[in-house]
Specification:
Blueprint lengths: L5 E5 L5 E3 L2 E4 L4 E7 L2 E8 L2 E6 H4 L4 E5 L12
Length: 78
């Protein structure tokens, strides 16, 4: 079992959000991570890391899985 830290936020459907959950906004999948003391949505695009504030986007995204049970959700479309 992997222990995941609760962020204190819920997604637009009311589902609790944990560190390393995978969230989607309809077009892009993100991983919930802690960065510089804040909860962020992390996305890797062509080797660069893009960070969004979880607080600002929490109502626009929904939890679709986590990195342990659904790693295939992180693969980029070709």
């Amino acid at each position: 079992y992997e222990v995941m830290q609760y962020t204190g936020f819920k997604d637009k459907s009311g589902v609790e959000i944990y560190r390393e959950d995978i969230m989607a906004d309809g077009t892009v999948n993100y991983v919930v991570a802690s960065y510089k003391g804040a909860w962020r949505l992390k996305r890797n695009v062509r080797g660069d890391t893009w960070w969004k504030s979880l607080y600002r986007y929490v109502n626009d995204c929904e939890v679709i899985g986590n990195i342990y049970e659904n790693p295939e959700l992180l693969k980029e479309a070709k």
